Amino acid sequence: MADGHYNNNHVPVLFSYSVFSRPSSVPVGSGHELLIQKCRSIYGNQIDVHRKFVIQLFSEEWGQYIDLPKGFSISEKCKLRLVPLQMDITTLGNLSPSTTVFFCCDMQERFRPAIKYFGDIISVGQRLLQGARVLGIPIIVSEQYPKGLGNTVQELDLTGAKLVFPKTKFSMVLPEVEAALAEFPGMRSVVLFGVETHVCIQQTALDLTGRGLEVHIVADATSSRSMMDRMFALERLARSGITVTTSEAVLLQLVADKENPKFKEIQNLIKASAPESGLLSKV
């Protein structure tokens, strides 16, 4: 444990924030304010000092995190997480290159014959990767069991990717990803695309939002073997507060202004419209 052994005056607590979780301890009887201070001492400059936060407690009874009851104080081992109390209305849903990471999920060769409109999502995925490089946005790429399913398709240029990693877990949120994200303490938003919508994309998105991050799923760069699975996954994710959007919307939101010095390069990427495949009619 992070603080070594515990005595009778301290209680072990797992503190979570964003995609991070760290064990520590606090004095018996610690209340809300002391717990906030403890979180800030653990996570330091990863926490935006201008934001307001609330502490939530993991409830075994409900199987999820709940707001701390009024007058709560620590008496036994527990799991807590620090959650932004409210997003500034001017930032909610917005994307900025300095606070955004792109996640490319499992765009691998063996999926080519099975995934609906796979060629189309490869084309749009390449556009997104090019845009990320133009705007200096970090790229994280996963490959599901590459020994059996092959590597990322050759059409996708992964030059400059921050991390390309193998996985067997469906979600991309693994320790090596958490370590990579820790290098970007101001990161607030994840642009997510790849396959499959109802499995790895969905589980990754829910893991990220559960850690307080905004997720933008690129509909024209995301697919499944079954269009029904894809449709209901996107509907579920949208109801969960996740933004379902398109590649052109993402890139233009990131560039924001015609006077942006990168606008021409982004404009050249989107001059040709994204493929008019059957994907969008099934959302």
Q: Would you tell me the overall average pLDDT?
A: 88
Could you tell me the number of beta strands? 11
- The dominant shape is globular
Structural class: alpha/beta
Helix content: 25-40%
Number of helices, counting only DSSP H or I runs of 4 residues or more: 8
Strand fraction band? 25-35%
* SSE ordering: EEHEEEEHEHEHEHEHEHH
Instruction: Tell me the distance between the termini.
Output: 46 Å
Describe the sheet with the most strands. 6 strands, parallel
State Rg.
20 Å
Uncertain segments are 1-5
Set out the fold topology:
Elements: E1 10-17, E2 20-27, H1 32-43, E3 53-59, E4 64-67, E5 78-84, E6 100-105, H2 118-135, E7 139-144, H3 146-149, E8 163-167, H4 175-181, E9 189-195, H5 197-209, E10 214-223, H6 227-239, E11 243-245, H7 247-255, H8 263-270
Parallel strand pairs: 1-5, 6-7, 6-9, 7-8, 9-10, 10-11
Antiparallel strand pairs: 1-2, 3-4, 3-5
Brief description of this entry?
By secondary structure, the protein is α/β, with parallel strands linked by helices. It has helices at 32-43, 118-135, 146-149, 175-181, 197-209, 227-239, 247-255, 263-270, and strands at 10-17, 20-27, 53-59, 64-67, 78-84, 100-105, 139-144, 163-167, 189-195, 214-223, 243-245. The longest helix is centred in the middle third of the chain and has 18 residues, at 118-135.
What does this structure look like?
The protein is α/β, with parallel strands linked by helices and 283 residues long. It has helices at 32-43, 118-135, 146-149, 175-181, 197-209, 227-239, 247-255, 263-270, and strands spanning 10-17, 20-27, 53-59, 64-67, 78-84, 100-105, 139-144, 163-167, 189-195, 214-223, 243-245. The strands form two sheets. It has a six-stranded parallel β-sheet with strand order 8-7-6-9-10-11, with helices on both faces. It has a five-stranded mixed β-sheet with strand order 2-1-5-3-4, covered by helices on one side. The protein is globular and about 65 Å long. The termini are far apart.
